[in-house]
Input
Amino acid sequence: MPKTKKGRENKAYFSPRLSARLDGILSARTTIISAPSGYGKTTAAQSFLGENLPRGAAFHQFNCAEEPAAASWKRFARAIQRIDAETGSALLAMGLPDDDTKSDAASLLAELVCQEETWLLIDDFQYLQAAAPQIIWDTLLEHGAENLHTVVLTQTPVNVRMTLKPGVLHIGREDLRLTEGETGEYFARCGVKPTADQLRTVSYYTEGWIAALRLQVNRYLATGSFLDTRDIRALIREVAWDRLTGEEQGFLLLISPFDSYTLEQAAYMMDLPEAPEYARAISLRSSFIFAGPHDRLFRPHSTLLEFVRGEFDGLPEEQRRNILTRAGGWCAKNNQIEQALYFFYRVGDYEKILSLDVLGMEFERTVETRYADILLDILEHTTAQVKLRHFAAVVKMIFMLFGAGRYGEFGRWCGELCALSAGSGLAEAEKDKLSGELALLTSFTKFNDISEMGALMRRAHTLLGGRPSLIHMTDAWTFGSPSPLFLYHGEPGRLDGELADMAENCGYYFALTQGHGSGGDVLMEAEARYHRGEMEDAAILAHRALYQAENKQQACVCIGAAMLLGKLAIHRGDGDEFSSVLERIARYAAQNPLKSNRMEADMAVAALMTLLGREQEIPAWLREGDINEKRLFAMSVPYAQALFGKLMLQSGRPELWLGMEQDARGLARRLRCQMALLYGSILTAAAWRARGKTQQAVSALKSALATALPDGLYMPFAENRDLLGPLLAEHCPEQARGRIAALGSAQEAGAAEVLRNLYLKNIPFDLTEREYEVAKLAAQGLRNQAIAQALFISENTVKKHLKTVFQKMEVSDRGSLQEKWKKQRA
Output
C-alpha cells in the first residue's frame, strides 16, 4: 500500500489557476462564482476572503435557503440592513417585490450606501434569485454601491451579458475543476501518493469535481485504493455514511428537513435539553458541514444533504412523519408559521396546522395561489370536531380565501361554517363567539349592500363585544379603491339613505374593530357632497375624514381623503395645495406599503392627473390598461377601468374603451357599482360622439343622466364636459344644465390655474418642466427612489435629470442644490 499521511485531507486546495482568478475578488465590484453543487464554491470563497481581506474591511455572509419567497426576501432585507440601515429597512417595509414594486426595490439597491469597504457573500444565490424579479438582482450585481464588493455563489448558469459588464468577475466550473496534474498536487498535499494509473483513473471518474475527489481521498486514506465509480451517492455511502455511528446517522436524518440548523435546533429535534457531544463533533469537524460565524449556524453541503434526504425518503412512514412533525414544531415555536404549516401539511396533521398562530398571516392578495389551494385542502379534510376546536383559525383561513380572490370558495365556506356552528354542542359563550366571528365574516359576502352588511356587523358587535380575531388594522378597508362612494353607492336615488346606513353601521364596525377603516364613512359623504357640487361642505368633511383616518393610521382612507382634497384644489385652482396633496399620497402609501395601498395611491394620482390632462404622469400599469384581479381586489377594478377609459378618450383612442365597455359594465353590475356604471355611460357617450355615432352617444348620455340626477350628482358630467361637447346642452334636463355648466367652467378654470402654477410658471435656472419637478423634490431632501416613486418615473431617469439640474444650477451635490434652491425661493 502506498505511503499516506493523515490529517490534511480536508484542507482547502486551490489550483494555481483558481488562485489567480480568486485574487480578482479583492478589486471586482461583483464576483459571480457559478458551478453545480460539489465544485467547492463556498470553500473557495470563504477560505480566500478569510485569509486575504484588507485589514479593517467588513464582511457579511448571507446564506440563501429553499424557503417561501417572502421569508427569503425578509432575511435578505435584514442582511442589507447591516450594510445600510435605511435601505434595508425600506426593503423590509416594502415586502416581497412584485411587478409593481420591482423598480422601487431596484432603485433602493441602486442607492445603497456603504460607508466602509465591505464584502457581501451571498451563498446559494439561486434560491434568492427565484424569490423576486430579475431586475432587482441585475441592479445589485451591476451597480452595487461604492465600497461594496458583492460575491455571489450560485448553482445556476450565469447570463453571459452579465459576465461582460465592467467590474464583474466570473469564475465558472472550468476554473474550479481540477486537471489531472492539479489532482495529483491536491492528493500530494493530502498525503496521498497514487500511481500514475490510479491518478489517471480517478481523474477520469471524478472529472476534477472537488467533492468527489475529497471523498476519494478519504477512501484512499482508509483503504489504500480508490473507488472506480462516478456514482456520488455510492461514494458518500461507502466513504462517509457507512462510517458513521447509528447515532450520527440518526442525527443527520433528524436535521435533514432543514437547509441549515443550530445546535439548539438540533437539540429540539432530538428532544434533548442540549445537543449531545457527537452531534457537536460532527457539526464542527465534518468537511461536508459548514460552520457559520461563531459556530452558531451549520449548513450541510448540498451533496451530503441530497444524500441524507434520499435516505430519509427510505425510512418507514411513521418515522418520517415523526421527524417532519418535530420540524413543524420547531418552526411553530420560532414563529415561522408558513414553514410550520408546510411541514404539518406534508404529514396531513390538520389539527396541528389549525393550532398554529395563523391569525398573524397576511390577509392581502400576496397570498399565493399554492397557499390558497393548501388552505382549501385543509378545510376540506379537517373534521367538524377539529374545526370547532380551532374555529378562530378556521375563520381566519376562510377570510384569507377572500384576500386571495377566491370569492366562490369564500362564500361556500362561510355557509359551511355557519351550518356547522348551528349544529354544534359548544358552550353558549363559545357559540356566541363563533357566531359573532361568522356574522362578521358573512357580512363580506353581502358586499356592497350596506344595510345587509350592517345588520350582520351589528350582530357581530353584540356577540363579540371585543375585537374580532380576523381583522387587522393594516387590512385594506377600502379594498384598494380611493373612493368609498365607488364601492358602496349601489342604488340610484338612494344615496342619502346609503349615507345614513353607512354612518349608523360604521359606528358598530369601528367599535368592534377598534377603528379599522376610521373616516371611511365620512369620506363617502364628502365625496357625495363633491359630486353634488357642494364644495365647502366636501372640504370640511374630507379634512374630518383625514383626521379620523390619521388618528387610527388608516392609510387606505387617508389616500382617498387626500385624493378628494386634490380634486377640490383643482376646482379652486390652488396649485400649492395640489402639490401638497401629491406628496401626502406618496407618504401615506410609503407608511403602510401594502400592495393595495400602493395600487390605491397610483389610482388616486391617476384620477387627479386625468383632470389636468397630464397623461404622462399616470403610472405605467394604468396607462397600459394592465388591470386585473392579480393586481387589484375585484371591488377596486371598476375604478381602475373608469380611469383607463377616460385616459383612452383623452388620448384619442375611443375604440379601446368601447372594446372593453361591455365587460366593464358587466362587472360593475355584479358589484352594484353605480358610480362605475355612471362614469362608464359618460365615457361611452363621449366615445360614440368621437366616432360620429350621435344616436348611440345620446342613448348612453341619457343612461348616465338617469343614474346620476336622482341623487343630484353633477360633477361626473362637469369633469368630462370637454369630452361630451354639445351633447350636454342639447340633452341634459334644464334644471341640471346650468348647475353642470357652472361647475364645469369652474373646473376648467381651476385646472388651467393649477397647470400654470405647477408646470408652466416661473421655472428657474432654465430648467425644463420635468427637471424642475425633480429638483424641487431633491431640494426637499427626497432620495432618488422617493423622487421616482412620487413622479412615477424610473430611478435612472431621476439620476439623468439630476445630472442636468446640477449643471444648470452650477452645483456639485445635493447639499449645494438645497442651499441654492432655498435662496432662489426666498
Summary: The beta strands are 30-34, 58-63, 118-123, 148-154, 168-171, 289-291, 298-300. The first strand starts at residue 30 and ends at 34. The two ends are 91 Å apart (CA to CA). Residues 734-760 form the longest helix (27 residues).
